[in-house]
Every structure is written in C-alpha cells, then in structure tokens.
Design goal:
The chain is mainly α and 597 residues long. 70% of the residues lie in helices and 1% in strands. It contains 22 helices and 2 strands. A two-stranded parallel sheet has the order 1-2. Helix 21 links the parallel strand 1 and strand 2. The relative contact order is 0.16.
C-alpha cells in the first residue's frame, strides 16, 4: 500500500521512513490543535519528571561525549582519513568554517549574544549556593563562565560526535546517509530492517522538532525587533507571517541546491556577522574594557570548566539548570542528526584529528569572541553606563528583544537593528534550507537526484511544527517549545552512547587492532649465595633460576602488519596478525615447526 502511494505521488524515497515520519508529524499537529489542553498537560508533566530525575543524565552525557572525542582525536585513530586515504579535502578551510558557522550555531549567537550574559548577570546561576549578588562583578564573571559553557566546547561536542560518526560511515564505509548507518557495527544488515527504520524515523522527527524550536525562537526575536523598530504587535498572527516568510525563503534556497543556495548565503552571513561584531566592539566606546574582559573571562572559563561540566545544583536545587543547561543540551542534540550529516558532507577528506579539532575548536573560539564582545559591552552599559538591560531582559522577561534593546544604545541604532533582523532571517533560512536537504537525504538513504517536492515537503513540515508549537500550543510559546524539546531530546542522548561504541568498534575493525606488545621472557635471578644454597639442597631445582640475567627467548622483530610475506614466511603472507607482525610465536603454514620470530 505504501509503495503504491509512493509511486502514485512520483516520490523517490523509502516509503516506510518517509510516510512513517510524515504520519507522526501530521498526527502531532492535529492532536495539538484538537486536544490542546490535555496534550499540554501531558507534555508538561513528562518534561517536569525528566528535569527532576534525569537532568543529571543530560549533564553527564555531554561531558562524556567530549572526553570520548578527545580520546579518539589524540589516539592512534586520529590519523584515519574520513574518505579514501589519498583524497584531499573537498572544501577550503575558510569555506568549511563558513558553512559550519551558518548551519550550526550562527542563529544561536544572534539570539543569545546579549540575552545569555545579561540574564545570568541579573540572575546569577550560582547566586544562592555561592552568595553571588545580582549585578555585581562576581555575577558578571559567573555569567560569562556559564555563557561559554553553554555555547563553546560542550555545544559543539553535541554536533561533533554524530558528525564524526556520519563522516566515517558515509565516506569510509560508503553507507547511506542515515542515522541507522552509525549502528551498522551493532546491527549489521539490520540497519535496513525494522530497527534501522525506527531509528531513522525517530531521527527525522526529532530533527524537524529541533529545527522548529530554533525557528520558533527566531520568530520571537524577529517579532521583537520589528516591534522595537516599527511597532509591529507581538501577536500570533504576525508570528505566523514571519514563519511563512522564513520558510518561503528557505524553500527558494532549497530549490537552488547546496552550492548555489546554502554556500552563498553562508558566506554572505559570516561576513555580515563579523562586521556587526566589529561595529559593537569599536562603536560602543569601551573597546579596551571589552577586549580585556573577553580574554580574562576565557581564562576563568578554562579554570572552572571541570566544575561547570559536572555541576548539578545539588545543594541549592534552585531548578535553574533544568531551564537553562538541560534545555540547551536537549535542544541542541535534536539538531545533531541534521547538523551532523551536513558537517560530514562538507568534511570529506579530512582526518579524524583534523575533523575533531576543527569542529570543536574553531567555532568555539569564534563563540568566545562573539559572546565576550557582546557580553562585556552589555556589562559596560550596566556597570558604567545608563543601565536598563537587566530590567528589560530579566525584569520584563523580554529575552527575544534583548539584542535590539542593546543596539539602541549605539549610534545608527535603527539602521544596525535592521541589518541585525536581516541577519537573523538569513541564519534561519539557511537552517531550514540545510535541514530540508539533510532530512530528505536521511529519508532517501542517498544523496543523488531526488524530486524537488520531497525537499519542499520537509521545509513545509518544519514550518508547520513551528507554527503549532508557537502559535497553537495554547500556552506561553517559549515554554511550549522548551517542554516539547526536553522530551524529544532524550532518545538522542541514549543513542549517543551507542554511537561511541559503534564508531570505536568500526575503527578497530577497519584499522586493524594491533595485538598486545610482546617482549622477551627472562629467567628468575637469585643472589649468588641463595643460588649456591639451592644447588646444594635437593629440594630445589635450579634449572629455571640464574645468577646473571638470562633471556628465555629472542627479541621479537616487528614489521608492518599489512605487508606481504617475505623470506621469513616463505613469501606467503599467511598466518595470523601476531604471526605476520612477529609479535608472538606462531606457526606459519608450510614453514616447518614453530619458532621465534
């Protein structure tokens, strides 16, 4: 039946995965609109339970992922190339970074650049437990610690782990661009069976929800900016129009493809973002304060990172971390399949060490600069200027409007705010664009030609979910987004642990796990006087003991485990890996009795 429907619609995808994902999305939309209150209550209860009982699991999981990535990158597998061994990288470093920035975290920087530091400055995360006073210098330092914690290494760890897995299994093992492919070392051919299809459906649905949350936040920010500049009401009707415009522009970009759509928009956006960053740095009159504060706060973050990475608010138990850190990790990990495949797609030809260091370090460094400049510029307004940002962001709860309230303190505020709105729109257009392309690839299982209608469908699905969560949820839009994404993120965290195991197992299989190092064996050495006593005593056997050190066998001779056999094994190249490396005593067929190699 599904196949007939698939053919009737002239699709070219996996019917079970495509229609299964579409059915869940449509059912959610209809159920939310038809049963708003009961569904909201159920989602709220479930998310509250997760936050109370499993918030620590989200914190632990991301830190473990980071430790695993460092272990893989610095170890012997770091030299493995993600693709054919002799193939160079497809994209230059500059183009690679630009696409990483736009598809991964560019929209997040625009939304949280001012809102995050000012929120923690006005309401310190560890205020109750450490006695930090709101609006103080100590509050500013702690605010930057948590801002960097939320948007540098740990955020990019969530993207890097699945991205590395995708890059390896897609480019090295030539498997389909699906989440189920990562589990091939565990499932084998089962990646094409029911379990594999369930994994892919969950990944596609989660990705659509994750992007929808981002578009929802962006819609609130765009609406807030337009309200600040033109008095546009912050109502559901205008938010629906904004969602329609963003998704419509994204669909145009989707139709142009990767090289003409996403790549061009990414390059334009990175240049515009850097210009906005420089404007904030030099036009605010506090350049020296901002630069000094950025470097100092980064050092504080590095010193406090071990504590931040494992902090669970155990004693104060304020619930702050549940609404900030846990929400971030759950939200970000729902992005990870789409961002992971996208990063993998543009990273072919790089080694694992280059990949991990690049994807972790370069965007993280840019985030440090971005949040340092915006954060300390905002602190300067509060500590040395007119103030008022804390009242707007924390007092009034206007997080979406934080950026535009901040820019109102700068010269040419109207013009710069218009540019900022355009930047936010383009960032979210590239997010929807990338998500539609990647989601279609996950459903298809390949990246060859596919009907344009399929990609358009996924773009429309993202817009539909966004509108449902933000406009038709029947409650505060931001709270609805947060509650939903906390639930959706849980399966992805669980899959993350299996991804680590699957990748390491595949690397062992493909790179050839070396046997344990073999060394010479030695006889037991006794002092001369004890040796003489035992020689005279018939109860002792002195054949296995000596006075001077004496080896039992020769030093093993190591050679390339993949080298063909030579004269030592008759040129056959046969035998086990220990036999071929000379790291153990082994019998080579056709070469006589066992001997030491």
């Amino acid at each position: 039946m599904l196949n007939r429907l698939h053919d009737a619609l002239h699709l070219r995808t996996s019917p079970v995965i495509f229609f299964g994902s579409a059915a869940i999305i449509i059912a959610f939309v209809i159920g939310t609109i038809a049963f708003t209150d009961p569904l909201n209550a159920a989602v709220s209860v479930a998310s509250d339970w997760l936050l109370t009982n499993l918030g620590w699991f989200y914190i632990l999981g991301v830190t473990m992922f980071l430790a695993f990535l460092i272990f893989i990158a610095v170890g012997r597998f770091g030299r493995v190339k993600l693709g054919p061994d002799e193939e160079p990288p497809e994209h230059s470093g500059a183009a690679w970074f630009a696409m990483l920035f736009a598809a991964g975290i560019g929209s997040i920087l625009m939304f949280w650049g001012v809102a995050e530091p000012i929120s923690h400055f006005g309401d310190p995360p560890r205020g109750p437990s450490l006695g930090i006073e709101a609006g103080s210098v100590a509050a500013a330092k702690d605010a930057m610690n948590y801002t960097y914690y939320h948007f540098t290494l740990h955020t990019w760890t969530i993207f890097t782990l699945p991205a590395l897995c995708f890059a390896y299994f897609i480019h090295k093992r030539n498997l389909p661009p699906r989440v189920s492919s990562i589990f091939q070392p565990i499932l084998g051919e089962g990646i094409h069976g029911p379990i594999g299809k369930i994994i892919d459906i969950v990944a596609i649905v989660g990705t659509v929800f994750g992007i929808a949350v981002s578009i929802g936040l962006g819609t609130l920010q765009i609406n807030g900016g337009l309200n600040e500049l033109f008095g546009m009401p912050e109502t559901s009707g205008w938010q629906l129009i904004i969602i329609a415009v963003v998704c419509g522009l994204a669909l145009i970009s989707v139709s142009l493809g990767l090289d003409k759509g996403i790549k061009i928009l990414s390059n334009v956006n990175i240049v515009a973002a850097v210009l906005l960053l420089l404007f904030v740095l030099f036009a605010g009159g506090s350049t020296l304060f901002v630069l000094k504060g950025t470097f100092e706060s980064f050092g504080s973050y590095l010193v406090n990172l071990p504590e931040l990475a494992l902090w669970n608010d155990t004693f104060a138990n304020t619930g702050w971390q549940n609404t900030w850190t846990v929400f971030y990790w759950a939200w970000t990990i729902t992005w990870s399949p789409f961002v992971g495949i996208f990063i993998a797609r543009i990273s072919k030809g790089r080694t694992i060490r280059q990949f991990v260091s690049g994807v972790l370090a370069v965007p993280s460094a840019f985030s440090v600069v971005w949040f340092g400049i915006f954060g300390f510029s905002a602190f300067d307004i509060e500590l040395n200027g007119e103030g008022g940002l804390v009242d707007t962001v924390v007092g009034d709860g206007d997080i979406p409007g934080a950026l535009f309230a901040f820019l109102s303190y700068y010269p040419a505020a109207f013009f710069v705010s218009v540019v900022a709105i355009i930047l936010v729109i383009i960032f979210f257009v590239t997010s929807v664009d990338s998500a539609a392309l990647v989601t279609d690839s996950m459903a298809n299982g390949h990246e060859d030609y596919n009907p344009l209608g399929q990609r358009i469908f996924w773009g429309l699905a993202i817009g539909l979910i966004t509108a449902t969560l933000l406009v038709f949820s029947g409650s505060n839009g931001l709270e609805a987004l947060q509650s939903t994404i906390i639930l959706v993120g849980l399966p992805f965290f669980i899959m993350g642990f299996f991804q680590m195991y699957a990748l390491y197992r595949a690397l062992q299989e493909d790179a050839g796990e070396l046997p344990k190092m073999r060394t010479r064996n030695w006889k037991q050495v006794l002092p001369p006087e004890e040796y003489e006593r035992r020689e005279d005593d018939e109860e002792y056997d002195t054949d296995e003991v000596v006075v001077e050190p004496e080896a039992v066998d020769e030093v093993p001779v190591m050679r390339d485990p993949y080298e063909d056999g030579d004269e030592a094994d008759g040129g056959t190249g046969r035998g086990s890996l220990p036999a071929r490396t000379g790291s153990a005593r082994a019998e080579i067929p056709g070469d006589g009795p066992p001997r030491s190699r």
